[in-house]
Design a protein that fits this description.
By secondary structure, the protein is mostly helical. 43% of the residues lie in helices and 8% in strands. The chain is built from eight helices and seven strands.
Length: 268
């Protein structure tokens, strides 16, 4: 399908998404990401809005919390909600912040202005004038000054970021060189929201060494490999090499040991 007999050194373009890396079709020439990755990303962007609304509810945050009236330690301070993973996604640094980081990078690539960042609220306050318009800068007499977090809720910010990303996704997959990493980040964010919304406790990943696979020119991949206790599959996110059976796991260890011996011989 992708045969080019005239130039033996020619390499057919592949999708830049780390989890994909499949060869692009002729109709996808000039794109950085394949159409299936674009379609899946668009689907994730559509689902992230309802997922965030679900996570941003008090019931989701307090699910499993101690009921009022139970035995207490004597402190009048209410306990911290047990679902800190929900707070990690709904508070500052969560979904809204991660989406804004991607939007800002796209805006910079397009040459568009990005939203001003408020680092010092006392120096750059957020104000609202008599007509209700919000602005950043030195307040004028009569303006009411608000903390930055009160001028735009996370729910409003998330919806605005999702709308921008969905509208500009067709441009990004064709013209933005770093779209592969952004797609991977969006997929990870979507997976985190799905897992937390379903109250799943996902097992952590452990590092199992470097990838011993070699490219066509003989160079080693050397990307970090990780595995979980719930899956016997190992896949390199950089070169796409896979080890799925017990025999292949043994082969992986032998290849890694061979690379270590090779490195030791070069160092010696």
């Amino acid at each position: 399908m992708h045969d080019n007999s005239e130039d033996l050194d020619y390499q057919w373009p592949v999708c830049v998404t780390p989890r994909c890396n499949r060869q692009l079709w002729v109709a996808e020439t000039g794109r950085y990401a394949c159409r299936p990755c674009e379609d899946q990303t668009a689907k994730h962007l559509t689902e992230l809005g309802p997922l965030f609304r679900q996570l941003n509810e008090t019931g989701t945050l307090m699910r499993g919390a101690r009921r009022p009236g139970g035995a207490t330690s004597g402190s009048r301070t209410p306990p911290i909600p047990p679902r800190l993973e929900v707070l990690a996604l709904t508070a500052n640094g969560g979904v809204a912040t991660r989406l804004q980081a991607i939007e800002d990078s796209w805006r910079q690539a397009l040459g568009w202005e990005t939203s001003p960042t408020v680092d010092e609220r006392t120096t750059f306050p957020v104000t609202r004038d008599q007509f209700g318009r919000t602005q950043i800068g030195r307040p004028v007499k009569g303006d009411r000054v608000y903390p930055h977090w009160r001028t735009q809720t996370a729910a409003q910010a998330v919806l605005a970021h999702l709308k921008f990303l969905a509208n500009n996704l067709p441009w990004a997959v064709s013209s933005y060189e770093s779209i592969g990493q952004d797609i991977d980040d969006l997929w990870r964010l979507h997976a985190e929201c799905v897992a937390v919304a379903a109250n799943e406790h996902r097992p952590g990943r452990v590092n199992i060494g470097r990838c011993p696979a070699r490219y066509e020119d003989g160079t080693l991949c050397r990307a970090d490999l990780t595995a979980t206790a719930t899956s016997h599959r190992v896949r390199c996110g950089t070169c796409g090499a896979r080890w799925e059976t017990l025999g292949e796991w043994k082969q992986l260890r032998e290849q890694q040991d061979a690379v270590l011996r090779e490195d030791a011989g070069v160092a010696a």
